[in-house]
């Protein structure tokens, strides 16, 4: 009874409209920006798409760090193209969020003052060139695992953005795996760098799927609304099952003494990520949180004159048009 009261107070929505909305989702229809939607759906999507957009933008920083130090011209061109793709992903996603009634400026301000989050993985540093391989292989790999099901999400603009994004992510993962393979097949020193990159990146990548299902707050409703298609633990397991043979092929060791194939489950058993570390990084105490936000704040300030100039130009143009009429 209490739960019911809380629920109806929290949503305050017309039950008939709610039922019709849910029926559309259950029938596999897409919800478009001008359609009626419950406030909770709108808010959850703004948070989810906004965080996703911010992750694409902040995610450029750890890789941007290596563009000037790529070992060959070819690797530099690949990395540059990949980082530019991430900027594009951020822009599609901000556009998708804008159709829900929030502006890109508002979202950016919420990122810059810490009211909105981005994926905790980007608060870890990239320390050697093999990290570029590990990021593409594991971080983009985990991103794809999250994003492929979202191509079927109920909100039209988000689903369409994901289709485009996933095509590019697949190139990101392959370039990463290729870069780390080159290191793993290289000199003993290069192989050591590859192993070190895997050791540092694996667990932060496993954390990208979010907290364990038993602690995940928004899952159930989001799954009913089809803005979340799988549980965090399902995707994490799928990612581990995919990654282990890939590491074996490279001759690298998964840094988990408990890793073991479980015949009965048909999956690998593995140690859970350190959730204290996860929450600590989300709270702002990861190795690079301060740097990442400082870099984005600086970029926003440095670009202010461009935004101001474009607005001034647009206003003059509009005024001239009115004067001519
Ligand atoms: Fe991306
Ligand atoms: Fe990517």
Instruction: Give the termini distance in whole angstroms.
Output: 63 Å
> How many strands in all?
2
Continuous helix count = 14
Order of helices and strands: HHHHHHHHHHHEEHHH
What are the low-pLDDT stretches, counting only 5+ consecutive residues below 50?
1-9
Largest sheet entry: 2 strands, antiparallel
Taking all residues together, what is the mean pLDDT? 94
What fraction strand? under 5%
The set of bound ligands, ions and cofactors reads: fe (ii) ion
Name the strands of the widest sheet in spatial order. 1-2
What is the percent of helical residues? 55-70%
The general outline is globular
Describe this protein with a few key phrases.
325 residues, mainly alpha, two-stranded antiparallel sheet, 14 helices, globular, disordered N terminus, binds fe (ii) ion
Architecture overview:
It contains 14 helices and 2 strands; from the N terminus they run αααααααααααββααα. The protein has 325 residues and is mainly α. The radius of gyration is 22 Å and the shape is globular. Residues 1-9 have low confidence and may be disordered. It binds fe (ii) ion (FE2) (2 copies). One fe (ii) ion binds at residues 86, 140, 143, 169, 172.
Walk me through the topology.
Layout: H1 2-11, H2 15-26, H3 39-58, H4 60-67, H5 73-98, H6 104-112, H7 130-150, H8 156-184, H9 188-206, H10 219-224, H11 232-250, E1 260-262, E2 267-269, H12 275-285, H13 289-302, H14 304-324
Antiparallel strand pairs: 1-2
The chain binds fe (ii) ion (FE2) (2 copies).
Can you summarize this structure?
With about 325 residues, the protein is mainly alpha-helical. The chain has helices spanning about 1-10, 15-25, 40-60, 60-65, 75-100, 105-110, 130-150, 155-185, 190-205, 220-225, 230-250, 275-285, 290-300, 305-325; strands spanning about 260, 265-270. It is built from 14 helices and two strands.
